[in-house]
Design goal:
The chain is an alpha/beta fold. It has ten helices and twelve strands. The longest helix is centred in the last third of the chain and has 18 residues. Bound molecules: adenosine-5'-diphosphate and magnesium ion (MG).
C-alpha cells in the first residue's frame, strides 16, 4: 500500500505539492491526471524517493513505513519508476540499461546471474524491444527509449510501479500494448500501478481509480468514472462551456 499524508513540497519557495493526502491500496491501478505544472511528476518523484527533503520522506509511506525508514536499496525493491524524460548522459546498450533494473536484487559482487539475464530478456520481449538489445540508447527513437525504460522498471520486479507519461512518445499500437502489459502485471501479479496520463480515454479504459491534481492540490480522488466527469475536467483545466466530454473520455470543443 502507498500512503501520502499531507505532502507539501516547494521548489524555491514556490509550492508545487500542497497538503496532498491520498491512499492507493495494494493492487490498485491508479491514473494521475492534471494540467501541465500541476505537480504530477513531482508527486511521482516524491514517491520514488528522489526528493531528499525530510518532510517528503515522512509524508510518503510504503507498506506502512515512511520512506525515511527505507534504505535506497530496500525502497528499490518496493518501488520502480519510469521517468517522464530520460537524459542520456552515459550511453549504454539496451540490454545493459534493462539489467540496471536488476541491481536491487543483486549482491555486491554479482553482475547479472543467468536468472537476471532471463528476466531482462523476458521484459525486453514483453515491451517489444528485444531486437534492439545490442543497440546504444542514443541510437533509439523516443518511443523505443520509452519502452526500454518500461522494461527496466519491470525488470526490477517491484510490487509498486510508477510511470510518468509512459505513452507520450508511443504510436497507437504501442500505447495499447504498454497499457495491456501494465494491466496484466496488475491483474496477474497484483502490481500496484500509478501512472500519469494525459489521455482521459486511456485512464477510463484501464484505471480503476483516478487522482486529479490542480495546482499541487487534490481536486478529486476516487473511482475513475466519478473523477473524469465534465465539471471536474472543466474546473481542473479551466475549460469553457464550449468544451464537452463523452462517456469514453474524449474531449470536444464546439468552437474551433
Ligand atoms: P507536471 O508533471 O504536472 O507537469 P511538475 O511536477 O513537473 O508538473 O512541475 C510542477 C511545478 O514545479 C511546475 O511549475 C514546474 O515548473 C516546477 N518545477 C518542476 N521541477 C522543477 C525544478 N527542478 N526546479 C524548479 N521548479 C521546478
Ligand atoms: Mg510531468
Amino acid at each position: 500500500m502507498l500512503s501520502i499524508n499531507n505532502l507539501t513540497f516547494s521548489y524555491d519557495k514556490k509550492p508545487v505539492l500542497d497538503g496532498l493526502t491520498f491512499e492507493v491500496p495494494a493492487g490498485d491501478f491508479c491514473a494521475v491526471i492534471g494540467p501541465n505544472g500541476s505537480g504530477k511528476s513531482t508527486l511521482l518523484k516524491a514517491v520514488s524517493g528522489l526528493l531528499p527533503e525530510a518532510a517528503v520522506r515522512t509524508a510518503v509511506s510504503v507498506d506502512g513505513q515512511p520512506l525515511a525508514d527505507y534504505t535506497p536499496l530496500e525502497l528499490a525493491r518496493k518501488v520502480a519508476y519510469v521517468p517522464q524524460r530520460v537524459d542520456i548522459v552515459f550511453d549504454f546498450t539496451v540490454f545493459d540499461t534493462v539489467m540496471m533494473g536488476r541491481h536491487p536484487h543483486q549482491s555486491r559482487w554479482e553482475t547479472g546471474t543467468p536468472h537476471d539475464r532471463e528476466v531482462v530478456t523476458e521484459m525486453l520481449d514483453k515491451t517489444g524491444v528485444l531486437a534492439l538489445k545490442d543497440r546504444m540508447l542514443s541510437q533509439l527513437s523516443g518511443g523505443e527509449v520509452q519502452r526500454v525504460m518500461i522494461a527496466r522498471a519491470m525488470a526490477q520486479q517491484t510490487p509498486i510501479l510508477l510511470l510518468d507519461e509512459p505513452l507520450s512518445n508511443l504510436d497507437v499500437t504501442h500505447k495499447f500494448e504498454v497499457m495491456r502489459l501494465l494491466r496484466t502485471l496488475n491483474r496477474d501479479q497484483n502490481v500496484t500501478v500509478l501512472i500519469v496520463v494525459h489521455d482521459f480515454a486511456f485512464a477510463k479504459q484501464f484505471a480503476t481509480t483516478t487522482l486529479l491534481l490542480k495546482s499541487g492540490k487534490r481536486l478529486a480522488y476516487g473511482p475513475t468514472d466519478e473523477v473524469i466527469i465534465l465539471p471536474m475536467i472543466r474546473d481542473a483545466f479551466g475549460l469553457g462551456d464550449d468544451y464537452r466530454l463523452d462517456e469514453r473520455g474524449n474531449v470536444y470543443c464546439d468552437n474551433l
